[in-house]
Amino acid sequence: MSTPLCLPEGEVLIPQKLKEVGYSTHLIGKWHVGHYKKYCLPHNRGFDTFFGFYQAFSDYYYHNSTNGAHSAWDLRRDDLLVADEYMGQYSTYMYTGESIDIISKHDRNKPMFLMFSHQAVHVPLQVPSSYADLYKDVISDERRRTYAGMVSSLDESIYYVVQALKDNDMWQNTVLIFSSDNGGAPTEGASNWPLRGAKASFYEGGVRAVGFVHSPLLPPSLRGTINKELIHVSDWFPTILHLAQGSVGNLDLDGFDQWKVISENEKTVRREILYNIDPLYFHPMVRKGVEFLDNGYFDITTQAALRVDNWKILTGRPGKGNWVPPPESGLDTIEDDTMKQELIHLYDIGDDPFETVNLAHSRPDKVEELLARLQQYNITAVPCSFPKEDVKGSDPTLGDGGWGPWM
User: Fold this and answer.
1) Closest by Cα among 264, 266, 375 to 315
2) pLDDT for residue 42
3) Mind listing the pLDDT tens digit for each residue in 300-348?
4) CB of 50 closer than 8 Å to CB of 43
5) CA 169, 172, 177: angle at the middle one, nearest 5?
6) Which of the residues 16, 60, 139, 305 has the least number of beta carbons within 10 Å of its own beta carbon?
7) Cα separation, 217 vs 244, whole angstroms
8) What's the average model confidence in pLDDT over 150-179?
9) 84-129, pLDDT tens digit by residue?
10) Distance between CA 313 and CA 322 in Å, rounded?
């Protein structure tokens, strides 16, 4: 990323609040919320230590990443560029070793927050052949086979982290939260089947992420069960603070404390998820007379997505909406003709989780209700800030040769 942009300085992060109640805080792996100024960096946003990379992705062995006109190393320990020291080491191994080291050196009289933002299984698809070979007899597609190997390596990593916590007598008081950030990209070996869509779309295949919570602190009766309550990534902030006996103070949060939903099977108080409103991304092919175009509430050419209870509305271009089965299934992709997409999609996710039937025409009342709700969100939105890339200024050769602050 060569854009002079990062998470605004006034936004308070989980590690900052946890430090208020005595936690040590560590980040391993991906940062990717901006690095153009020093205040943007992890150790200035609440993390005691950082070992990882700033960009969206990097090479798993050489730890360099290419962004536009520049290609440079992208591996740092706090501020120090260390990519050359780890040249040739597979990043999943490398980050796992770092986590074990942090755990083994930790003072057990002090609470710890470890955010392990694994590089895997993001592109580029790279893994030691021993993992991909596990699937050579069952997956013929090379990209899919490599992806499966990367997942197995990731799975092994989590095992070693848990084992380190057990070996250091920390597991009994640990809550492990595992979560993906978005749906997978089928073109890069992933599969969201039978959900519709993929990463970079607002269909369920793009926004419904895999996750689980595991802990000796959970009641045995809940272990192995599936929780179908509505939970959003923003809920982790107040939930983790609750676990740490911290306080959100006067912060105006979008999230809800979901610990009783997770640990006691209570009903969630969350009814809505605003996935996005992007006024910079609009549908250019709009003709007069399109249904709901003059609805009086919300500009439906704008890309937006909202869920209220089981109802979900998509406006503008929601992204590619194919249903893509994994190659080894032998099934064919069901194509979605994006050039003929309508500007309004309405689905009942409870009855139709695969988003096969657009109910916008049969339920105009629900469409208007949700468009009005979208507009309520829109009028309170902070104006977009999306400055142009600073290709010249961000050139890593002007600094220490790696991606880092340039202003």
Assistant:
1) 375
2) 97
3) 999 999 999 999 999 998 998 999 999 999 999 999 875 566 889 999 9
4) yes
5) 115
6) 16
7) 13
8) 97
9) 999 999 999 999 999 999 999 999 999 999 999 999 999 999 999 9
10) 17
- The answer to whether the bond into 121 is cis (omega within 30° of 0) is yes
Those residues with Cβ within 8 angstroms of residue 68's Cβ, 6 or more apart along the chain or in another chain: 2, 389, 391
Per-residue pLDDT at 2 exceeds 90: no
The two tokens of residue 246 are: 């911290």
Tokens of 4: 């002079």
Cis preceding linkage at 405, omega within 30: no
The span from the CA of 244 to the CA of 259, in Å, is: 11
Rounded Cα distance between 346 and 358, Å, is 5
- For residue 346 the two structure tokens come to 């309405």
C-alpha to C-alpha distance for 350 and 268, rounded to whole angstroms = 16
Q: What is the mean pLDDT of residues 39-45?
A: 96
How many Cβ atoms from other residues are within 10 Å of residue 76's Cβ? 25
| 24-30 and 112-117 strand pairing | parallel
Assigned token pair, 280: 């910079």
Instruction: Give the C-alpha separation, 53 to 60, whole Å.
Output: 11
pLDDT band at 281 (very low <50, low <70, confident <90, very high): confident
Mapped onto helix, strand or coil, the DSSP state of residue 26 is strand
- Which helix (H) or strand (E) covers residue 95, if one does? helix 91-105
The secondary element (H helix, E strand) that includes residue 236 is helix 236-243
Strands 64-67 and 49-53: unpaired
Nearest Cα neighbor of 305 from 234, 253, 256, 378 is 378
C-alpha 29/C-alpha 80 separation (Å) is 15
pTM (2 decimals)? 0.94
Q: Please name which of 262, 255, 189, 190 lies closest in space to residue 219, comparing C-alpha atoms.
A: 262
**CB neighbours of 16 closer than 8 A, spacing ≥ 6?**
45, 46
* Contact between residue 3 and residue 387 where contact means Cβ atoms under 8 Å apart: yes
Residue 1 CB: number of other CB atoms within 10 A? 19
